[in-house]
Amino acid sequence: MSGLYIHIPFCRQKCRYCDFASFAGAEALINGYLSALEKEASFYPSFSADTLYIGGGTPSLLSAAQLEKLCSLIARRFAPLGMFQESTLEANPESLTKEKLRLLKDAGVNRLSLGLQSFDDGVLKRIGRVHDVKTFLSAYGAAREAGFDNISVDLIAGLPGQTKEMFLQGLKKLTDLKPEHISVYGLQVEEGTPFYKEGVQADEDLLRAELEETHRFLQAAGYVHYEISNFALPGRESRHNLNYWQNGEYLGLGSAAASYLNGVRRGNVPDVREYMRRIGAGENPAEFTEKLTGKAKEGEAVMLGLRMLGGVRLSDVQKRFFAGEIQDLVRRGLVEQNGDFIKLTFEGMFLANQAFMAFVGPFEEACS
Ligand SMILES: C[S@@+](CC[C@H](N)C(=O)[O-])C[C@H]1O[C@@H](n2cnc3c(N)ncnc32)[C@H](O)[C@@H]1O
Ligand code: SF4
User: Going from the N-terminus, what domains does the chain have, and what CATH number goes with each?
Assistant: First the structure.
């Protein structure tokens, strides 16, 4: 499997918790950015992908004409969107118009990922979202009317001003809409964001309680909890993201986009203007490239695989490299081992970052 990711780094306004490489008030750059994307795509004439993910930022912020331009450059350089096994576009409720939905459907987009974050207007305002719940509901309804039968919705647990009861009521309202896929992320307060500057702190106990209830409630509602933050109706898991966790190859185009090709990880510069300048000047847009080898490479593969709640099958080399670490994780109750398989325990699901530390270098010695 291989994936193609395209980053659209523009947003109407910056949400107060968001640390993603996205910028508000830079719409004037969009047309030039699309041309830069086309040029970067031309560096990979023989790359072919099974899945496509157009993420951001806010891809739905593009005008209908700009979305058309984006879809046709992907079709020209890679494949028509309908030819991918899965082609997802990330969208924010306020900018997903009927015209854009029709265009995207006709172009072959077959999956939408909608950012709701909370089912409470007060919370949405507090966290700096542009939309309210009504706008979300009408975008969701319009997407269904336009024929989208694979929709994912994002929520954030642990938001300030949101009690556990409010969160769970929201989750219930969301499942009443029967989206095929739900992502529930625990709030992370990142340095440099308005939340960080305000001193917002994630309440770890509340977060844990909300995530535990989410796990129980969504499983009872028929969703498979298949990755730490992701739930899907059977068969509706995100194929594009599964490829990441299975350590598959992917090409990322655009500012801040990451790639993993031929064992090399690469990340493009996050600054949009610098990305466009480099592409225009024929320079390499990558800010870093690294080729992982030995224990670091195997550790990364195990760590990615552990994100999937079904677990990961260890190769002989991985078992040899990490025998001690795995034994320790099992002793601490974070991981369980069954033959060649390891997976997070129920407890480990909520303390996954602690489990992942065991597989992250630098390692003192490399064995072979
Ligand atoms: C690439 S982001 C944004 C997608 C889209 N622009 C939106 O806002 O809906 C994907 C998701 O990450 C989650 N997210 C972003 N920042 C977060 C944070 N600081 N803590 C927890 N979740 C976060 C949100 O649920 C968001 O929908
Ligand atoms: S959460 Fe989404 S809409 Fe908000 S700033 Fe981040 S990328 Fe943009």
Answer: 2-244 (3.20.20.70), 294-359 (1.10.10.920)
